[in-house]
Amino acid sequence: MPAISVEKSLVDGRISIASSVSVPDILESLESISVEGADILIPQSTIDEVKNTFPLNSFFRQLIDESELSVYGIEESELPTLLISEDTIHFRILLGSVGQLVDVPRDREFEDLVEQFDSLATEATVAQFDTPGWETILSRLEEEVGENTRLEFERLILAAHLEELGALDEVSVAVIAAAQSGALQYNLGKWAEDIGLASKATISRRKSNLVDDGVIVTESVPVEVGRPRERLHLSDDVQRVEIAEAPDGRELDVSMQSRSDREDLKSSEPTKADDTASSNPGETDSEPGKESDILATMEKEIRDVLKSS
């Protein structure tokens, strides 16, 4: 259940959020209520955390753009969690791990609270999020790299819960998603750099790590001008790519074929001799006539050597 869910609309309302409310809870709460045009006060430390956590920053940016929110960062450490609508003020009371919203009518005695909110918002810094919204990121990925990469990237990212996304290695997810669809590393790096996910150099290093781990392989693709580019592919040894449980949340899980499985598969493959025998069942490995000629030649050479000595 969202931390600050209310049934009433908060269109053009005022919201302040305490530092004790986690970023995933903030997102879940704001998505659960009507907040179009609202002013929101958030501790600057929380805003900094949002900016540095992908994809939560893109989810937040999309919510801001869609709902036309005004978000302000404030250094006030004791900011309460409250929601002010046209006729009601909702206070969040927290006792231990239990939080509850208490509603009071927006009477004259609470107008000082509203005025103080507006004063803090005026003095606060408007939060700017450079990361594009989530849907924009996905559409750019499809344009730059391809639809299959977009679908796989989206599948893997959304497989984790909101509270687990901060621990996810999104760069590896992007590289593996591109490898599953056979995309060019150059296109992936350009997309990642454009949206602020990672630099082209970071994408290249992560690709190299995954190559060393046997997860992906590369194919050189010539271009008309410049050096060849690398196409990414998943290794044949990769059986499955999922988001799995981990001690600190969820992580990218790549299931590889074991060495014994590879050896069993190799031993079950027909050899060249088997292929020859099966295609020419009437023939043996050597013909008697040829074998006798070879032996006669060898004997003659040996006799010649002995005579000369």
TrEMBL record:
Residues 248-275, 287-297 have a biased composition (Basic and acidic residues). Coiled coil: none annotated. Residues 135-242 form the Transcriptional regulator TbsP-like C-terminal domain. Residues 248-297 are annotated as: Disordered. It comes from the Archaea. This is DUF5821 family protein. It comes from Halolamina salina.
